[in-house]
Amino acid sequence: MLSKPRQIDEYILLTLSGATAVALTPFAIYRIWTHEWNVAILDSAAVLLAAVLWTHVWRTGQTLWAGRILASLCLIVAIITLLLRGAEQILWVYPALTATFFLIPPRIAAVMATILLAVATIILWPELTQVKAAEFLVSSIATMMFSFAFADRMRDQHKRLELLANQDALTGAGNRHAMEKKLLDVMAFQRRNQDTPASLIILDLDRFKTINDTHGHGVGDAVLIELVKTISGRIRSTDTVFRFGGEEFVVIAENTSLPDASVLAEELCCAVRNNPYLREYHVTVSIGTAQFKPSESAFEWLGRADKAMYRAKESGRDGCFTG
């Protein structure tokens, strides 16, 4: 059974929300013990909300709104703490600034952090000497700049690594890892919305070994690239093509019934057959299709389409069967 791995955004949110809850709990207890009710309520509310966000991300993996809420929580708690306790709480500004850049896009975080810094300066100005105010501003701005640079670079590197991890280097199609993640997402959606069908199409190049042996692997690679271009040019923007094996490809067609998938499969066969470059090397494909059943696993769904594809090969190739 395929299991969906956690993404880096989930790990960041789980870490920061968990750290927030754990770090503030002793302070909330202490404030309650000393009857400092205003700060006690603030700390307790922050602990509760951080714990709720941690539970939400752990159970659902959804990070978009959780990140925005936690970033807002960090800034609001920092400002209210300064209003209630003044300059003695100035150190809380720095973790609030830093956390914001890892929870939301750096450019949005820079705007929010600037607002926090401006509000904090206004609150603290009567309590600080000019030297202390300058030290606070310089150190806060430096923290913002370092956090922005690091978070922005980290997100850029993450996008590049994610692209490399999910894209087939030769053809530009999604790779097997990306296909498995997509299958899990589609299957989860289908089980919640069983009135909306989804189908899977497996394509295998016929006699691809002959092309490699006769014309060389350079031509074989060019054929695979052109095949993906042909498939991508025919399927919808909501459909996705993946390289499943050496010369085997999978199209996941959401909101597509088996009859509609069969029509698409026939059109793909025809598009490959009539492509001028592919026709030069007598390229054809055998295709199997299968519609998802809520009771089956991803491997069973793939297996039915794969068996249908092999029936197409056994029936003379350049054809389509359903599973």
UniProtKB/TrEMBL annotation:
Reaction catalysed by this enzyme: 2 GTP = 3',3'-c-di-GMP + 2 diphosphate
Sequence intervals crossing the membrane: 12-33, 40-58, 64-84, 96-125, 131-151
Keywords recorded for this protein, A-Z: Membrane, Transmembrane, Transmembrane helix
GGDEF domain boundaries: 196-323
Keyword Transmembrane helix recorded: yes
InterPro entries reported in the protein's UniProt record: Diguanylate_Cyclase, GGDEF_dom, Nucleotide_cyclase, Rev_trsase/Diguanyl_cyclase
EC number: 2.7.7.65
NCBIfam families the UniProt entry points to: GGDEF
Name this polypeptide is given: diguanylate cyclase
Organism field: Fluctibacter halophilus
Organism ancestry: Bacteria, Pseudomonadati, Pseudomonadota, Gammaproteobacteria, Alteromonadales
